[in-house]
Design brief:
5-stranded antiparallel β-sheet
């Protein structure tokens, strides 16, 4: 607002005031709009005339400024007109809004500033004040210049005005950006000049920019356009435009920074996770290496002191863990039950120097504990030879075994962990075991070795009676056992091992078929699967179209050269037919996991496997031999038996002990060769070797093949120790016979003689059939005491004097559907007969008691044993015929 000077003459003052007002309005009009006359613009186009008019405009503006109050900041509207040499003519014609420079400090006058004066440029308003249009001027700052284009791009123009835009540069901080504003009345005059001075390309780019940002017009700009018509309206519009542009740009920057921050957070989290995992892996590797070094140190100590340890008092910590691979364990049902098959280790107390600590994979109640106490105390009654309870228990046998149950048995229900891992996470159970073996010689025995056995052995500070877990896993696989058998020069089935490729599988199978045309069935075995669950087989000779042609050509060919030519011709055809035959006609043992060739092949090739020939015979007998390789290198044959198959012909359901299918000397020779190769590979502990024997149809000779090797304590050894403990018998590893000593009363010549009866100790051979895999779903509805009453009513029990009969092993405490049974008799036929009668009686009584037809494998076992029973009758008749003819 202009400061008015006082005048004594009122008329003169009013006249002067009106003149000043008109002069000021003219000056402002020249500032606000184009000062040039539009007619003259069309007539005079020379540059000199334009500069003259610009000079007059400068003079009129300076005269107007002089009338303002001193110290008041005024916006420079045509600052670009000063630079005539560097600025083009068409850029200097338009009146331009200022870019507020906040870094320039402007002095604020001390005297009062009227309302009509503008705020100093670059200074925020200190308070809200009312302008003629009741509008508060927005704040200004250094970033205000960045928001100038927003209002211009959206055509936020007040009513009665029209705006055009210059080409907008990419840099929003460029002070050369200008907005031209003029009234609609003069738009018709000014627009032709403006259009002639602007390039067509700039118009198109401005339109595209206008279309892009038109959607971002703030409502405040469109609804309050009349606020920019008053005094300093351009300054307020510039401040508002810059403030909105500053907010828009800040939001864009914030969104970008937020996106980058999120990305940085993800990258940093991933890197931290990776670095922590790497650090943990290194620590675990160091711990594993330390445990392995400790294992080797303790192993050497056990090897040096084994002769002293095996003859003195010692404690055996038995962990019936099945340390199988994770992919096998996750598909294995009732893992804890399978581990508890080894509960018969409690009866390994026939040596008075042995104490047993059994880590149970299942909870044990008082009923099961009481049963095993009675079973262990039964040996004293057997030694006395009467049914009277023993007056004294020798060697405190009840105190020589302990059962420890880990507290974390049910902590990981979905992980299917082995017992060694569960014991590792059970500090109370570990501490209890450590207290029990304190100041005693002890060693650890595991079922199937696992890497966590090293941790347990280190914590308990005891050695392991076995080999390194990695070595045990390597040579327990199907391919690993084939390496041992091949180096031992023992007879093996025709086949190929270490197969990891489909082409290798097909080519090997095609070559085997051509070389062994008498083999009708070929078997596929996955390397690390357990109990025959990874086996599949296919009857190639039955379904292969070119098989008969192969046989005919083989008969015609006599020389080796012609045979090779025929094989080469038929090899390609055989190779092309095999994939379809395998896809359609392959049968899987574990149908719950495998139901197609593609699914089986995926697991087979990922884990490795072997191809093996099925014996070309109708009568096949499988044999299991249990060995113990001691740390000092000596080995002993513990037991042998013929396998029983109830549910699958590739899964061992039980054993008929001892084996009577092969000459014992031949078996012992093969076992010796295999044991020597195991010692060279540092394999110690308990080992099971599987053989199959059959009669060759061409030569009528008995052949034997070595098929499998398992490293670790097995369920067969567990039941063997129960039988050995109860009968007080001994196994002869040379003749494969089990001898039991019994007391027979001596006959007297005179009955009237008084005195104690005299007994004669006699030796006799005993046979047994055992299995830990009897199950009946209705057993869970019957209490154990009722079950034993049923058995006694049918004469199922153990005769202490004769040391014959049946013994049970209890496995479960809650859902006792599974039990184990051992039947002992003096002949193999009587043993088979008694076992069948026991199964039939139990099946009938259990079904009658529960009145429900449950699921069981009793009758499947009966059928398999009846087949064996028929073979034994044929063998006995052949033997008697040969003796009579001779």
């Amino acid at each position: 607002m202009m400061a008015l000077a006082p005048s004594s003459n009122g008329d003169n003052a009013n006249r002067n005031k009106n003149n000043e007002k008109e002069e000021k309005d003219n000056a402002l009009k020249m500032l606000s709009f184009n000062p040039l006359n539009t007619r003259q613009l069309h007539q005079r186009t020379s540059e000199e005339n334009i500069y003259e008019q610009l000079y007059q405009l400068r003079q009129s503006r300076n005269s107007t400024r002089s009338k303002h109050s001193e110290g008041k900041s005024v916006v420079s509207i045509d600052a670009a007109l000063n630079d005539r040499n560097h600025q083009p003519i068409h850029d200097s014609l338009g009146l331009q809004l200022p870019l507020i420079e906040t870094h320039q400090q402007r002095p604020i006058p001390r005297y009062h500033i009227s309302r009509k004066t503008s705020e100093p440029l670059g200074v925020l308003p200190l308070k809200r004040r009312r302008n003629p249009f009741n509008y508060s001027i927005p704040s200004t700052s250094d970033d205000a210049k960045q928001h100038l284009l927003k209002l211009a791009g959206h055509e936020t123009i007040v009513k009665g005005t029209h705006s055009t835009f210059e080409s907008l540069p990419s840099n929003t901080n460029d002070p050369s950006i200008r907005i031209r504003t003029y009234s609609r009345e003069e738009s018709n005059v000014y627009e032709p000049l403006h259009s002639s001075l602007r390039n067509t390309t700039n118009v198109q780019s401005n339109k595209s920019f206008h279309n892009r940002i038109q959607k971002r017009v703030p409502d405040r700009l469109t609804t309050n356009q009349h606020h920019f018509l008053g005094y300093n309206g351009k300054e307020r519009a510039a401040i508002l435009i810059q403030s909105y542009w500053r907010g828009f740009r800040t939001r864009c920057i914030y969104k970008l920074l937020k996106k980058r921050k999120r990305a940085v957070h993800i990258i940093a989290s991933a890197w931290l996770t990776y670095s922590k995992l790497s650090k943990i892996r290194k620590q675990l590797n160091l711990i594993r290496q330390r445990q392995l070094d400790y294992f080797h140190i303790k192993q050497n100590e056990l090897r040096e002191k084994w002769s002293c340890t095996s003859s003195n008092r010692r404690t055996i910590v038995h962990i019936p863990s099945l340390g199988l691979s994770q992919c096998v364990r996750k598909n294995l049902n009732h893992l804890s039950l399978r581990e508890n098959y080894q509960i018969g280790r409690l009866c390994e107390l026939d040596d008075p120097n042995v104490n047993v600590i059994y880590v149970s994979p299942m909870s044990v109640n008082d009923e099961i504990l009481q049963y095993y106490n009675k079973l262990i105390n039964l040996r004293a009654m057997v030694e006395q030879g009467n049914n009277q309870p023993a007056t004294s228990i020798p060697n405190n046998v009840n105190e020589r075994f302990k059962i420890v149950v880990p507290e974390s048995l049910h902590s990981f229900p979905k992980h299917n962990m082995c017992l060694a891992t569960l014991l590792k996470y059970s500090p109370k159970a570990l501490k209890q075991i450590k207290n029990l073996i304190q100041n005693q010689q002890a060693y650890l025995v595991s079922g199937t070795s696992h890497i966590d056995d090293l941790y347990i052995a280190e914590y308990l500070d005891i050695p392991i009676y076995g080999c390194e877990p990695e070595v045990s896993y390597l040579y327990s696989t199907k391919s690993g056992s084939k390496r041992i058998f091949k180096s031992s020069n023992v007879p093996m089935p025709f086949g190929e091992y270490d197969i990891y490729d489909l082409q290798h599988l097909l080519k090997s199978l095609a070559q085997l078929i051509i070389e062994h045309l008498d083999v009708q069935r070929w078997i596929f075995k996955i390397d690390d699967h357990f109990d025959g669950l990874g086996i599949a087989y296919c009857d190639i000779a039955t379904y292969l179209p070119c098989y008969q042609k192969l046989v005919e050509e083989a008969r015609k060919c006599t020389s080796n050269e012609s045979n090779k030519l025929i094989q080469n011709d038929l090899y390609a055809k055989l190779l092309s037919e095999l994939p379809e035959i395998l896809d359609k006609h392959t049968i899987y043992v574990n149908k719950a996991q495998f139901n197609s060739w593609q699914g089986y092949l995926k697991v087979f090739l990922s884990q490795g496997g072997i191809i093996e020939a099925y014996p070309p015979s109708d009568s096949i007998t499988s044999i299991t031999i249990c060995l113990s390789i001691e740390p000092n290198g000596q080995y002993s044959l513990l037991c042998s038996g013929d396998q029983l198959h109830a549910e699958s012909q590739f899964s061992c359901w039980g054993l008929a002990f001892p084996q009577s299918s092969i000459d014992p000397k031949e078996l012992n020779n093969y076992c010796l060769l295999i044991a020597e190769q195991c010692q060279q590979r540092h394999i110690y502990g308990y080992i099971d070797i599987d053989f199959i024997t059959f009669i060759d149809g061409k030569t009528d000779k008995q052949n034997i093949w070595v098929t499998d090797l398992s490293i670790g304590y097995s369920e067969h050894l567990s039941l063997f120790h129960v039988m050995k403990y109860i009968t007080t018998g001994q196994f002869n590893s040379v003749t494969h016979s089990f001898i039991v000593k019994t007391k027979q009363p001596k006959q007297r010549l005179r009955n009237w003689q008084n005195g104690a009866p005299e007994y004669i100790i006699t030796e006799k051979n005993c046979y047994a059939i055992w299995s830990s895999r009897l199950y009946h779903t209705n057993l869970s509805n019957i209490h154990y005491s009722i079950f034993f009453e049923i058995c006694r009513s049918h004469g199922i029990g153990f005769d202490i004097r004769e040391r014959q009969g049946s013994i049970f092993t209890l496995l479960e405490s809650n859902h006792h559907e599974h039990i184990g049974m051992i039947t002992i008799s003096d002949t193999l036929q009587n043993t088979l007969t008694n076992f069948i009668c026991n199964l039939n009686a139990m099946n009938q009584e259990i079904t009658a008691k529960t009145e429900v037809e449950g699921r069981s494998n009793f009758m499947l076992a009966v059928n398999d044993i009846e087949n064996i029973f028929g073979l034994t009758k044929d063998n006995d008749s052949n033997v008697s015929f040969n003796t009579t003819t001779s």
